[in-house]
Amino acid sequence: MSEQEKSAATPNSELDLRGVICPYNFVKTKLKLETMKEGEVLSVLLDDGDPIQNVPRSVANEGHTVLGQERVDQAYRVLIRREDSD
Asked: N or C, fewer C-beta in 10 Å, the chain?
């Protein structure tokens, strides 16, 4: 595994948005990403259902990269790399 892959797999920050309803979970994710530097990775915990369907799609529409998602207990962990917003 290269250094770049290791850094991509290691979140710089984490948000636990379990129990947060749409669209607030996306808004909180977007606001957090805006405070991060380009290339940093955010780990977000989301509930099943609308959150896991909507948040990854919405951040991708904003131009960020969804690196992956995995099931964690009753929730999902989504890794998002912040991309340059210009």
From this structure: C
